[in-house]
Design brief:
Shape: globular
Radius of gyration: 24 Å
CATH superfamily of the largest domain: Aldehyde Dehydrogenase, Chain A, domain 1
Strand content: 15-25%
Largest sheet: 7 strands, mixed
Helix content: 25-40%
CATH architecture of the largest domain: 3-Layer(aba) Sandwich
Number of strands: 23
Bound molecules: 2-aminohexanedioic acid
Length: 505
């Protein structure tokens, strides 16, 4: 295991192995710091606006060619990308750890999620299907066909710096679209590495059009270029609800599709019959894992009166003993916060929680390597679901509240403005089914005896209300990346009109 002092050199050699040319991450205008130590590990070049325009024009040209390539052949490119990711998994996983600060196990898990979605998309490339529909007219056939959509813009966040791109790109590519990606300003190095892996896959594929998938490093202006460009027919954006509010009206004004993955304020309900060993592990991973920086992180825990006094001491024990530190070390479970702004938001929320009657355990800074920002996750017992509980703070804070009636607990679950993920811990089938029913959780994800985070790619991922309504990854999410045509074909020799309308000339 490398020491802290070698971190920039370690990053440079990793990037070299992943096929990123030194010119791409050295000498640029934008310094990239690792949250592990705060050290600068790369200097990347922002794309200027002419570069953005050229990339978008080239993506449009690539789309025009790619849409005519048979979908299973398009799948072959994604299969090769999956192969590159398998080969590079260890290096890319470590780079995710260096740049985003998540533990090695989570960094590797993120790359595994990319491999999984590639596998899924390869299969999908032979299963892009439409319906045939009964028609009211004789000697007619009605069907729907699905066609490539255009250029797909992807704006991704620091916390899943590469997986979110892959959920979009793997699907978009088999669907016949071109992809232009603006990664988070905080994680451009992993994006450059993924682009290099894509370029390798494309070279092996042979005749992929130039510009089929590109990355544009930069800040807000690059994002705005993507949002405004008329060629971008679908913009998939992951980030804060504030970002979604800025992006959505611009897309709506030009009638482009928006796939928004915004805030989450995810809750779990612990019922009287819950298996408390399982609940403890599920809640601990969901609340503290990735240092509380997942959009699916568990932030609110409603515990039934009858088990509160048993579960809480155990949870406090887990919070007190969890291993915090350098995420490259095998025994670390909690790495650093991404930056000082994140710490400030956490401290503000904990102050508000105290002011609103909360009792805070943890939340203090702990020593870590260099200038990295390490905190003990905070467990906050709240007398009620106050304003601070309903606000998403992207940090490891778990608000715990008592409940006595399941209907009220489900209501509290649904009172959050966001609607991403949710869980119930119970061994009572009625409670479990109620939670998953139309009158249960109003979130895009509702789990039983599993925490709200750590979703597999096979299901559709996304949520309701201020989470934005988009769905990525599995199930039928692919339809967002295609346009649907309804075809009515008359194979007879008369022209009966629908609805019995007469128009005889
Ligand atoms: C995110 O935090 O932006 O379900 C995505 C999960 C991961 C994805 C999280 N598969 O926790």
């Amino acid at each position: 295991m490398s020491t802290d002092l070698t971190l920039p050199a370690e990053t440079a050699s990793l990037l070299g192995r992943l096929g990123v040319r030194a010119a791409a991450f050295a000498g640029g205008n934008r310094a990239v710091a690792s949250p592990i130590t705060g050290e600068v590990i790369g200097q990347v070049h922002d794309a200027d606006l002419p570069t953005c325009d050229a990339a978008l024009a080239s993506a449009q040209a690539a789309f025009l060619a790619w849409r005519s390539v048979p979908a299973p052949r398009r799948g072959e490119l994604v299969r090769l990308l999956g192969e590159e990711l398998r080969t590079a998994k260890t290096d890319l996983g470590l780079l995710v750890t260096l740049e985003a600060g998540k533990t090695l196990s989570e960094g590797l898990g993120e790359v595994q999620e990319m491999i999984d979605i590639c596998d899924y998309a390869v299969g999908l490339s032979r299963q892009l299907f439409g319906l045939t529909i009964a028609t009211e007219r004789p000697d007619h056939r009605m069907m729907e066909t699905w066609h490539p959509l255009g250029v797909v813009g992807v704006i991704s966040a620091f916390n899943f710096p590469v997986a979110v791109w892959s959920w979009n790109a793997a699907l978009a590519l088999v669907c016949g679209d071109a992809v232009v990606w603006k990664p988070s300003e905080k994680t451009p190095l992993t994006a450059l590495a993924v682009q290099a892996l894509f370029d390798r896959a494309a070279a092996r594929f042979g005749d992929a059009p130039a510009g089929l998938s590109t990355v544009l490093i930069g800040g807000r202006d690059v994002g705005e270029a993507l949002v405004a460009d008329p060629h971008v027919r679908l913009l998939s954006a992951t980030g804060s609800t504030a970002m979604g509010r800025a992006v959505a009206p611009i897309l709506a004004a030009r009638f482009a599709r928006a796939l928004l993955e915004l805030g989450g304020n995810n809750a779990a309900i612990v019922c009287p019959s819950a298996d408390l060993d399982l609940t403890l592990r599920g809640a601990a991973f969901a609340a503290m894992g990735t240092a509380g920086q997942r959009c699916t992180t568990l932030r609110r825990l409603f515990v039934h009166d009858s088990v509160y006094d048993t579960l809480l001491p155990r949870l406090k024990g887990a919070y007190a003993s969890v291993q915090i530190g350098d995420p490259r070390h095998a025994d670390t479970l909690i790495g650093p916060l991404i930056d000082a702004a994140s710490l400030a938001a956490m401290e503000r929320a904990l102050k508000d929680a105290r002011d609103q009657g909360g009792t805070v355990v943890g939340g203090d800074r702990v020593a870590g390597p260099g200038q990295g920002i390490y905190v003990r996750p905070a467990l906050v017992e709240m007398p009620a679901q106050t304003a601070v509980v309903l606000r998403e703070t992207f940090a490891p804070i778990l608000y715990v509240m008592r409940y006595s009636d399941l209907d009220i607990a489900i209501g509290l679950n649904n009172d959050a403005p966001q609607g991403l993920s949710s869980s119930i811990f119970t061994n009572d089938v009625r409670e479990a089914e109620r939670f998953c029913s139309a009158t249960g959780s109003d979130c895009g994800i509702a789990n039983v005896n599993i925490g709200p985070s750590g979703a597999e790619i096979g299901g559709a991922f996304g949520g309701e209300k201020e989470t934005g309504g988009g769905r990525e990854a599995g199930s039928d999410s692919w339809r967002a990346y295609m346009r649907r045509a309804t075809n009515t074909v008359n194979y007879g020799s008369t022209l009966p009109l629908a609805q019995g309308v007469k128009f005889d000339i």
